[in-house]
UniProtKB/TrEMBL annotation:
<keyword id="KW-0732">Signal</keyword>
<dbReference type="InterPro" id="IPR042185">
    <property type="entry name" value="Serpin_sf_2"/>
</dbReference>
<feature type="domain" description="Serpin">
    <location>
        <begin position="80"/>
        <end position="311"/>
    </location>
</feature>
<comment type="similarity">
    <text>Belongs to the serpin family.</text>
</comment>
<dbReference type="GO" id="GO:0004867">
    <property type="term" value="F:serine-type endopeptidase inhibitor activity"/>
</dbReference>
<dbReference type="InterPro" id="IPR042178">
    <property type="entry name" value="Serpin_sf_1"/>
</dbReference>
<feature type="signal peptide">
    <location>
        <begin position="1"/>
        <end position="20"/>
    </location>
</feature>
<dbReference type="InterPro" id="IPR000215">
    <property type="entry name" value="Serpin_fam"/>
</dbReference>
<protein>
    <recommendedName>
        <fullName>Serpin domain-containing protein</fullName>
    </recommendedName>
</protein>
<dbReference type="InterPro" id="IPR036186">
    <property type="entry name" value="Serpin_sf"/>
</dbReference>
<dbReference type="Pfam" id="PF00079">
    <property type="entry name" value="Serpin"/>
</dbReference>
<dbReference type="GO" id="GO:0005615">
    <property type="term" value="C:extracellular space"/>
</dbReference>
<dbReference type="InterPro" id="IPR023796">
    <property type="entry name" value="Serpin_dom"/>
</dbReference>
Length: 312
């Protein structure tokens, strides 16, 4: 039976949650705009217009007030749902950044309307939250990011790059709102020149990730008009560091068929931990400086890791 170890990095992102339960602003009756403009050579499908005209709100849907507290809870649940979907199709190690995915999808909310807007919100697990002011949800993403990235004891860099085909027109309203709420940077490229476009994109990502990601793209699509990229760079310091002298070579199980010998850290110390009787797993909490934590979830030997994934 395969044993998986789950590593979850959690940051203390909500300070004084009880004071952050702000009610949404009064609903505005202004017309929703399609912020993504197109040049004369790019057509808009008739199907998209049909979705826009046929959109109707769910009459019997119960909604929750949109606050920072339940927003972060819903966003965390989105991350676990995303992990479960990926784990169903893969049997290898999985490293994902749900914050990156949700942030990128939230930028599309600024340009979407009707059925498209509803489906994106549903995918983000935010469809049951009252968002009568369309600026309020992006504002919460902005506050969430600021709570993490302004922590001076953590090196946590998060940003979004938008690469736009040089002759593709994007409306000013979308540019301004994306910059205001998501600090999006816009760069013009010529996707027709595949070599140059790939170089510009990879160099920008390499620079912003301190060289950790040197070649994100091996190929780019020459027909691209708009490419959004989200990047995260994290480097934390243990509150109680491991002693490198105690590093030993041990067996690491890649899957139930393969294992490799790798250097592993060892330490004897008192740590915060708990045992979940329902899931039959141990959870260990390792603190970083800056009130951030790594949670290590270790299933009991012989236990069904799929069941554990389903209840994360």
């Amino acid at each position: 039976m395969k044993i998986r170890i789950y590593l979850l990095l959690l940051c203390e992102i909500c300070f004084e949650i009880s004071k952050a339960d702000i009610k949404p602003k009064s609903p505005k009756k202004d017309k929703r705009l399609n912020f993504l403009g197109r040049n004369k050579n790019v057509s808009i499908s008739e199907e998209w217009h049909q979705h826009k005209n046929d959109y109707k709100p769910l009459e019997e849907q119960s909604f929750e007030e949109l606050t920072l507290h339940n927003f972060t809870e819903k966003t965390a649940n989105f991350g676990f749902n995303l992990y479960r979907k990926i784990a169903m199709k893969l049997d290898n190690n999985i490293i994902i950044s749900p914050l990156s995915v949700s942030t990128l999808m939230a930028t599309y909310l600024l340009a979407a309307e009707g059925e498209t807007h509803r489906q994106i919100a549903k995918a983000l697990n935010l469809h049951t939250l009252k968002d009568r002011d369309r600026h309020y949800l992006p504002a919460l993403f902005k506050q969430l990011k600021e709570n993490i990235t302004t922590n001076e004891e953590l090196l946590f860099v998060h940003g979004i790059l938008s690469f736009i085909q040089k002759d593709f027109i994007v409306r000013e309203a979308f540019l301004n709102l994306s910059k205001q709420y998501f600090d999006m940077e816009f760069l013009c490229v010529d996707f027709q020149n595949i070599t140059q476009a790939k170089f510009v994109i990879n160099q920008n990502i390499k620079q912003r990730t301190k060289g950790k990601i040197s070649e994100l793209f091996e190929e780019v699509d020459r027909h691209s008009k708009l490419l959004l990229l989200d990047y995260i760079f994290f480097k934390g310091k243990w509150l109680y560091p491991f002693n490198s002298e105690f590093t030993e070579i041990e067996t690491f199980h890649i899957n139930k068929y393969r294992s490799v010998q790798v250097p592993m850290m060892f330490k004897s110390d008192k740590v915060n931990s708990t045992y979940d009787e329902n899931l039959r797993c141990n959870v260990i909490k390792l603190p970083y400086k800056g009130k951030a934590y790594m949670l290590i979830v270790i299933p009991e030997k012989g236990e069904d890791y799929v069941s554990l994934e389903d209840h994360l």
